[in-house]
Write a structure and sequence with these properties.
This protein is 77% helix and 0% strand. With 112 residues, it is mainly α. The radius of gyration is 17 Å and the shape is elongated. The protein starts with 8 loop residues before the first helix and ends with a helix. It is built from 4 helices and no strands.
Length: 112
């Protein structure tokens, strides 16, 4: 079975609650490194699920499906964490009045 089994709805709910809490903490403290750690945790989970998928010898359909679903949720959380990191980084840059190299979320907000 996967490292963290995202086929279980309770695991998804716990991951989502932790995601929102870390995002709230990063927004309130205006520190992008907090959300950056969350991003690397989800990337680590994705790497772990990929290694587990590649090295597993007995691939039954249940294990295959569990790892694929877990990796899919890892990718979703990586995407959300990356967008959150860019958002908190922009807030931190405005708070500290430091010049950002570029406005990374400008392309995103213009399309919405």
């Amino acid at each position: 079975m996967p490292i963290i089994n995202f086929t279980n709805p309770l695991a998804i709910l716990i991951a989502l609650i932790l995601f929102v809490l870390v995002l709230y903490l990063g927004k309130e403290t205006k520190k992008s490194w907090i959300v950056g750690i969350m991003l690397f945790v989800f990337i680590g989970l994705l790497v772990g699920h990929t290694i587990e998928f590649a090295t597993i010898a007995n691939k039954s359909t249940e294990i295959y499906k569990g790892i694929v679903i877990s990796a899919t949720f890892d990718l979703i959380f990586v995407f959300l964490s990356f967008i959150s990191y860019l958002w908190i980084d922009a807030i931190e840059a405005k708070e500290r009045k430091k010049k950002s190299i570029d406005d990374s979320l400008n392309w995103f907000w213009n399309k919405v």
